[in-house]
Amino acid sequence: MNGIRLLLADDEPHIIQFLELGLLNEGFDIRTAQDGAAALQLAKEFQPHVLILDVMMPEMNGYEVCQAVKDTGANVAVIMLTAKDEIEDRVKGLSLGADDYVVKPFSFEELFARIKARLRNQFPSLLGEASYGPFRINDLKKELIYQEQTLELSPTEYALLKYIVLNNGIVLSKAQILDSVWGYRFGGEENIVEVYIRSLRDKLGDKEHRLIRTLRGVGYRMDLP
């Protein structure tokens, strides 16, 4: 999550400490505020991608901060924290421009999942890297990392391995692979798929074909551990 700015505003120090530690470990650039006025000022200066905003705060409440931030036209994902599980409170926050809400008490995993969902929706270019089992795909850098080692891949090998990883557990025929990786106008032989699969297996150390399996007469299937 490097390069993603997150502003955390809550008047309860233990919540600030708990969330700040977890979000720092995920690589976010964090700023914190314990009242609404400070949150609004920091939002203007820091220009966060994500604003985690408690509803009940001194100086200005979360609703007022949310409305003020959204009125500036800033592209920021606002997630409200509320101790109230009332429909009216949720509707009020969303009507003022909030993008999501989390009801206290909540788990860090729930909040983190909602942060990632908002980033995928509003800032997809920031999420260049995604994890799939032992693989990490960084589409911005066109890098594929396997077991913490960056693989040396040609552009076609990168496209092929990415396609197989993203379709983990699904049997892919040679025709499907050719259409998706080489393009439907490819006029060569289907055997080129076998050549590239063999090369990928070598680079992955998959000598026993446990990672990329061959289903004879059908195609290939990635089986992630």
UniProtKB/TrEMBL annotation:
Keyword tags: DNA-binding, Phosphoprotein, Transcription, Transcription regulation, Two-component regulatory system
PROSITE patterns xrefs: OMPR_PHOB, RESPONSE_REGULATORY
GO molecular function, one term: phosphorelay response regulator activity
Residue list for modification 4-aspartylphosphate: D54
Domain (Response regulatory): residue spans on this chain: 5-119
Pfam families cross-referenced by the UniProt entry: Response_reg, Trans_reg_C
GO cellular component, as recorded: cytosol; protein-DNA complex
Segments of the chain annotated as binding DNA: 127-224
Protein name: Two-component system, OmpR family, response regulator
Top-level taxonomy: Bacteria, Bacillati, Bacillota, Bacilli, Bacillales
